[in-house]
Amino acid sequence: MTVFALIIINKAGGLVYNRTFYEGGLQKISTNDLLVLAGTFHGVHAITSRLSPVKPAQAQAQATPPTQQPPGLLTRPEPPSGLEVLETENFRLQCFNTMTGTKFLLFTDTTQANVDVVMRRVYEMYSDYVMKNPFYQLEMPIRCDMFDRKLSSYIREINNR
Ligand SMILES: *[C@@H]1O[C@H](CO)[C@@H](O)[C@H](O)[C@H]1NC(C)=O
């Protein structure tokens, strides 16, 4: 089981972090291609989140005029979720989209289990070492030593298992 790489995309679709954990995993792509990947994924994610199927309950609520709706049946719709997983024969890309629209893209091999757990831990580290860093400017490239170090040691542990 191997975690190959992580990239973080800001809410405008710009690449703010890229990191390879395992040399000899994914082929290197050029800086330009990496930026294109970030922007493209961002766009596809936005479109797929608009494609969410209408839930039966929601469709019914829309069909009933508001005045005739029984009280208590108005539920808040689920927030739409866009593209979450992209899989090829050789790797898997899992996306986690935060409430503010920052996206974490984790590249792993196709047999990696518990990607959710790994993602969660990465997000925790981001909250602790990037968000709480007073010198970090939101939406800008992430250059935080602590984040780099904690991330490295956590992923190394997984990759050496
Ligand atoms: C990828 O990360 C390296 C090291 O942090 C950085 O120097 C480089 O500019 C980044 N590449 C892009 C396209 O952001």
Automatic annotation (TrEMBL):
Q: Which GO terms describe its biological process?
A: endoplasmic reticulum to Golgi vesicle-mediated transport
Q: Where in the cell is it found?
A: Endoplasmic reticulum; Golgi apparatus, cis-Golgi network; Golgi apparatus
Where is the region Disordered?
A: 55-78
Q: By its UniProt entry, which SUPFAM superfamilies does this protein fall under?
A: SNARE-like (SSF64356)
* UniProt entry keywords in alphabetical sequence: Endoplasmic reticulum, ER-Golgi transport, Golgi apparatus, Transport
* SMART domains per record: Sybindin
* InterPro entries reported for this sequence: Longin-like_dom_sf, TRAPPC
The record's GO CC annotations read: endoplasmic reticulum; Golgi apparatus; TRAPP complex
- One Pfam family this sequence matches: Sybindin
* Low complexity: compositionally biased ranges: 56-66
The text of the family note is:
Belongs to the TRAPP small subunits family. TRAPPC4 subfamily.
Q: How would you summarize the oligomeric state and partners of this protein? A: Part of the multisubunit transport protein particle (TRAPP) complex.
Protein name according to UniProt: Trafficking protein particle complex subunit
